[in-house]
Protein 1
Amino acid sequence: MLLKGYLTVAQVAKQLGLSEYRIRELIRDKQIRATKIGQWRVKLKDLEEFIKSRRNF
């Protein structure tokens, strides 16, 4: 099932170069916002906010 505007844990992991396990840890620790729709899904906007929060200016 494809949900427009949402990414799977696998897609997020691939984009960030992290393991799916690590992405689930970040979701569990509430560092990445996610919604459970069958499996965890991350809105693209929430992923962008996470990336911005991790920048070193």
Protein 2
Amino acid sequence: MLKSINQLDQEDDLKSFIRHFGEIDRIYLNGNSLGRMPLKTLEVIQEVTANEWQNGLISSWYSKWLKRPAAIAAKVAALINADEDEVFVGDSTSIQLYKLIFGALQLHPDRNEIIIDDLNFPTDYYILNGIMQQSFQQHKVQTITSSDQIHGNEAELSTAISDKTALVYMSHVAYKSAFMYDMARINAQAETMGALTLWDLSHSAGAVPVDVKASNTNMAVGCLYKYLNGGPGAPAFLYVKKDLQDQLLNPIMGWFGHKAPFALDPVFDPNPGIQKYAVGTPGILSLSALGPGLDLILEAGISRLRKKSLQMSSYFIGQYHQRLQSKGYILVSPEDAEKRGSHVSLAHDKADVIYQQLTHPEHTDQKAVICDFRPPNLLRFGLAPLYNSFAEIEYCILRLEEIAG
């Protein structure tokens, strides 16, 4: 017997976490773009600005701020099962990608092939192409194409990795469809051929289990403002396996990456280990805002978050088949739960109009449903198990049904 919406929400063992975010007057299903703000973040920012900055002034660098990047990195490390000295937090995802791609390509100059797919986020291509134009013009890219723009072509990817491959560079969860790769299997195939792997975890960290040790991952990056609720433009993280750190160059040599930054030596001497990936002065306000979201994710536990995420997306897809498919919607996410991240995408010929009516309802008794529109015809619904309920998903389905007529 199918459970009712009330039963699903009553049996949700994560339901108590919503109190950490407060009430809003909308249905927010866009946590895969920007997560909600934990209430404690307000307290943290107030403490940093009113006490540490206003009163402590520059002395706060030595008493608190210089330790903060490593403290936040330790929380990220716990989330992805890395050692604390394998994770660095700072700069944007794009900058982190630049550092790692450049270092990976320089490490093996005898290998000139890079493997990507056509499901990656656009900035991943931009960064890669810019590096190749500027510094690695002899390299070539092999793009693995998806036949349906939903599922990654894992069979073609497996055969493409060769002894000429320098880097396999993928998004763990595809930003459009939520298709999720088997990291461990691809890492193993790359290792057999002597190639490095780099994973973009931006749409998976905090929503699906990521274990960099068990999967034998070489390198990874991820943003912290989606499912990890770190705030708009929050600093990103990078991960580098310990035995690779001394082999890879950080091409952006800034003073915080120096072994002794406050010695102000005119000759750059890189910090050993993961701290060589530091560049400029860390952004303390944005770093501090990361703490509450990460703490909540760690408290909830990724296994419980994944369980609820799959329950929510499976419910959404089940309702799509029953109520939305006949209204012109097309599912653009994997049916197989094990191949799916934590968002569900639907296509529709009038997606732009539907989006406007969802986000700006005509009647005052209707709640706005905040999702994500990607031209020309895609609607993405980010299901954040930490603060979304089954009742919210049901309301979204009802509005999609009503609007499409």
Protein 3
Amino acid sequence: MKIAVFDTILNDGGGKRFILNLLPAIKNIDNNIEIDLYCQLDKIINSSFYAYLHSHNVNIYNLNSLSYRAKTQFLPLYKRGFNFTLRKLHLEKIQLKIKNEIIPQLKNEIFDITKNYDIAFFPWPFLIDNIDTFCPKVATFHDFNFKYFFGAEIFTEQMLRQLESQTPEWIKTSIPIVSTFFMESEIRKFYPIIKKVKVIQLAPLSGFTVISKEKALNITHNLGIDYDYIIYPTNLAIHKNISVLFNVIYKLNKKGYNIKLLLTGAGTENFKYAKATEFGIERNNIDNYDVVGLGYVTDEEIDSLIQCAKIVISSSKYEAGCGPALDAWIRGVPVAMSNIPAFVEHLEFFGVKAQLFDAFDANDIVSKLEYMLNNYDKCIIDANVSQDGIKKYTWENTAQKYYETFLDILN
């Protein structure tokens, strides 16, 4: 079997980790499988991402249509401090070039490539026009948060237009895969024309890295962290529901708990040291802080931060699954998370435990965290049970289901 994998975005974080875990695991099932990843090679050629896949016999090739020079021909002028009108004109030229030149080239390039493969797999089919392939097409749809408005826009108006117009075409022309039964209900709700959806649960995204407790402690200390903390690996999107945790930390510490909230992810560096209040957080309060924003950290750093945390928390309002919890359970770290459908689904499927709370009720979150802090020995027992449970479901299990899906399509 020959599988062509196309990733036109290569988004940092979960997107790359998904590929890093899945492709080598599929390769290990049957060494006769040929897996070739097509992407923008100059973005990764000198990275650990490239080295890791290459060491696991996953071939990586360049998508010539996405070459950096072609994509950014007008960008140097755009970045040179022109006035707003000129900058807008240059940006429009870039967008026009991408729409009229690069996208058609990309479509033709991918179609020609797929003439030599049995399966075309798109692990991130978002913000790109639907692409015809010569062989059967499989696509993983991670979530549908663009279908909701949470109080502030997650996407720009242009991105929303793209997602609304492009996604139905992708779904109609591919075999869709989702990671939870909740997300299956979502895809069927929004796209009732769909006939077949494959649900394949994901193992922990950081399952391929192993860091000793001693090394993890050294890494966290090098980051200046030598105190008890609750961590939320996230970003600033409004559905991540970060603001409620500011109020939670304020209420906890007002009761006498000395605990800090660590946030990682793009944008969180904007409030590196802050003080939680009843209104939000006071920025730049380095002398009396209890909220720390670390920004985007390396894989090794986030794995260490999770491993050394008192509690891993996720207060999100809407997700396909709880990545922070999966990464905590595999390390035997206690978890507190929203009682939203996809999160609750994990408990039964993996045989894990967590304190569930109402994401819209700060007092409920305070109550659950108080219980955990006051009964931490019990939480560690639950965390050990969770670690044993989730170890039974590995990326080999995930890969096996992807492999079987590919075989079914060919048959």
Protein 4
Amino acid sequence: MPFFRLSCVAVAAAVLTACGGSDDPERGSLIDTPAVLTTLTAAQIDAATTASGLRPLAGAAKCDVKVVALNYNTVGARGNDFTNASGVMLVPGGAACAAPAALVAYAKGTDVQKPRTLANPQDSETFLLAAMYAAQGYAVVATDYLGYAKSQYSFHPYLHADSEATSVIDAVRAARHAAGAVGASLSGKVMFTGYSQGGHASMAAQRAAERDYGTEFNVAAGAHLAGPYNLSGSLKLPDAIAGFQFFVPFLVTSWQKVYGTVYTDVKTAFKAPYSGYIENLLPNPTLNYTTLVTSGSLPGGPGVTPNQARDAMFQADFLAGARTSDTHPLAVAARKNDLLGWTPKARVLLCGGAGDPTVPPAVHQNVMKADFDSRGVTNVSSVDVDAMVQMAYGPGGKAPTDPTSVEFATYYGSYHGTYEPPFCHAQARGLFDLVK
């Protein structure tokens, strides 16, 4: 099942009309008139999922899907600094999809490209949402987060639970405001889901929606996929995760901007030359994962291990302090953004693959499930899709074991970002189908 791309649909030009604002705008209110970019027909979706191999998981499309660009009011990391965020709404349509739809609120995975928006039907993550949810009768809203695309916020608060939650919750409000103008009929039920960083964001959003807005949102379920829920625990790992050179510097510099206490001088955390520009590198206006490395902006490339990339970038004492001391400023910031200890009211699904080298379930998903279990929480289930990933992508149906082989590099290099997501989304939709 190769990585899927939607190549048959072009994005139509759209003109956005500004609506103005105020010094204290309503959170989730629309800034621009919702722009209908295009409509993906059920036949187009089926053709793309068949060509890509996604059809067995997505199923035959029941609905056409209208792709709508949103730009809405929200708040920043302090909670009272009004700003904006953009995103996409996917609206099911057609004769078979006229009934009021439950709304799936989605949070995307880590993105290093500042201009990228999910309001693009050719985006592979957007198309996955269209095929897995909207084409099956769900309305979907997905935020671009603070600091991306049309957002004028000065930075992205990466893995900052509170602002992730407000971005997602305000996207739900924006979708409700937009519904009438784009022909969406919403049932009132809301499901939260997200993948990778988005799994952290969607769980934070479900927690906040149930805790703070219980009368506003009818939360039917949450499916949180391959998310880093145990950030403080991850800092204690002796070895670097795959993608360390992207994710950990992004996290450290983000929390420094939010809290101002992670380090007193960037040079005490990062080595030269990275200390000279790392605070303004991510997200990047022009570079992607590949070109960040090939340009020399971040370490990596053939033969460079995650540990070598880590050691090239970070001052050893800084990471050792966070690994060994709970009072280290980075460890303190991480605990503020852990998601352990909350009790969901609606059903929750945790999903991931045991072979994930970037967000290891042993550190995050399993610890999260054990935390729920230890407190007698009974409405949480946990699924491991590793056997499915191996069967689909492993040579002979097994994960490659030779770390020097091309097969090993390809398999584990693609596991988290490409192989794992569709299987977890299929599990999420299975839960949503039970409660919609």
